[in-house]
Automatic annotation (TrEMBL):
<dbReference type="GO" id="GO:0046306">
    <property type="term" value="P:alkanesulfonate catabolic process"/>
</dbReference>
<dbReference type="GO" id="GO:0008726">
    <property type="term" value="F:alkanesulfonate monooxygenase activity"/>
</dbReference>
<feature type="domain" description="Luciferase-like">
    <location>
        <begin position="6"/>
        <end position="331"/>
    </location>
</feature>
<keyword id="KW-0285">Flavoprotein</keyword>
<dbReference type="Pfam" id="PF00296">
    <property type="entry name" value="Bac_luciferase"/>
</dbReference>
<dbReference type="InterPro" id="IPR011251">
    <property type="entry name" value="Luciferase-like_dom"/>
</dbReference>
<dbReference type="InterPro" id="IPR050172">
    <property type="entry name" value="SsuD_RutA_monooxygenase"/>
</dbReference>
<keyword id="KW-0560">Oxidoreductase</keyword>
<keyword id="KW-0503">Monooxygenase</keyword>
<protein>
    <submittedName>
        <fullName>Alkanesulfonate monooxygenase 3</fullName>
        <ecNumber>1.14.14.5</ecNumber>
    </submittedName>
</protein>
<dbReference type="InterPro" id="IPR036661">
    <property type="entry name" value="Luciferase-like_sf"/>
</dbReference>
<keyword id="KW-0288">FMN</keyword>
<keyword id="KW-0614">Plasmid</keyword>
Length: 355
């Protein structure tokens, strides 16, 4: 694969044990447990990990800060919500952690449903939500790259704002990358003008190809004034020594999910966004799409990146990921459970085939 491609994992910060069928360990959310995952990612050549967000979960930014302090190369992809943070507060926090870590911060801006009232936030319709997200991303980037920023928008305002510490350029990197997801028309218009990386869920190749083409066209139509949009894939990868073993294990996992015995709790419980619905609809086309994209988990409680799985030997999964890269994907966020052992297994078996 291209040397431009980067491979990250997922760290499931949550007060509930047994996330997506992981071991229901009472120590699952301790600093030592989460650090062991971050350290294993470093040791097995992963770039870093997405750390999810949502009200009722531990604070994502705090966990990212703790893990950065305990590691040397691990890069947290920190999920944040525009209504949970004000732009200047967030820009300052992220700039501080980026400075302390030597430039290891990445940011995933999330606009999907959440328990907004629980933290005093409110949103209007979809157009309002994405208009606010657009302002948030534009203003945060300005605060990272300019001084004495004054901005008056419909949702956010600052006057004479200068973030300290000032971000130091690292090569051609001027600030943390802003990742963004969302499949609705409103979301894609935000991605086309404001995001550095558009993240896709695990759709079939044709669906991803169409979305990349549409986003490139939108970027031109909307006069994008940033470097070209990059594209990423967030998906479950179930890897075993042989193709046969992988499918046997995948089908056994789904059978447990169907019985409600696999800890089917998932991250997308506050409502179904357009991108999530696209994944759920795939099951109507068949249990297996392309060569090895397994849609059955979505029927039985798999949500988000757990809705569809790439299943097979390391060679099978690597072949599929290369096909996504040929479409233009350069950022890969993979995962499977149990998290720690799969960091090691896929770091040992899969990553050498991709880097």
């Amino acid at each position: 694969m291209s040397s431009r491609s980067e491979f990250l994992w997922y760290i499931p910060n949550d007060v509930k044990a047994g996330h997506r069928g992981d071991v229901a360990d009472p120590d699952h959310n301790s600093l030592d447990t989460l650090t062991s995952q971050a350290e294993a990612l470093e040791q097995h050549a992963w770039k870093g990990a997405l750390i999810g967000t949502g009200w009722g979960r531990p604070d994502t930014f705090t966990i990212a800060t703790a893990l950065v302090a305990r590691t040397t190369t691990f890069e947290p992809l920190i999920a944040v919500r525009p209504g949970y943070w004000r732009p200047a507060n967030f820009a300052s926090s992220a700039a501080t952690l980026d400075h302390l870590s030597g430039g290891r911060v990445r940011v995933n801006v999330v606009s999907g449903p959440d328990a907004l009232a629980a933290y005093g936030d409110q949103e209007g319709d979809q157009a309002h939500r994405y208009a606010r997200t657009k302002e948030f991303m534009r203003l945060v980037r300005r605060l990272w790259t300019e001084e004495n920023v004054t901005f008056t928008g419909k949702h956010f305002q600052v006057a004479g704002s200068t973030v300290a510490p000032k971000l130091a350029p690292i090569g051609d990197r001027r600030h943390p990358k802003l990742y963004f997801g969302g499949a609705s028309e409103a979301a894609e218009r935000v991605a086309a003008t404001e995001a550095d990386v558009q993240l896709f869920w695990g759709e079939p190749l044709d669906g991803v190809r169409q979305r990349i083409d549409r986003l490139k066209t939108l970027s031109k139509a909307l006069d994008r004034d940033l470097p070209p949009l990059e594209f990423g894939l967030r998906i479950t990868t179930l890897v075993r020594d042989t193709t046969e073993q992988a499918w046997a294990d995948a089908e056994a996992k789904v059978a447990k999910m169907a019985k409600g015995a696999a800890g089917s709790w998932q991250d997308h419980r506050h409502g179904i966004a357009v991108g999530q619905q696209r994944l759920l609809d795939l099951a109507r086309q068949g249990d297996v799409l392309d060569d090895n994209l397994y849609t059955a988990p979505g029927k039985f409680g798999g949500g988000g990146a757990g809705t569809t799985w790439l299943v097979g030997s390391a060679e099978d999964v690597a072949r599929s990921l290369r096909r996504y890269e040929e479409l233009g994907i350069t950022q890969f966020v993979l995962s499977d459970t149990p998290y720690l052992s799969e960091i090691k297994r896929q770091g040992h078996q899969l990553l050498p085939l991709l880097t």
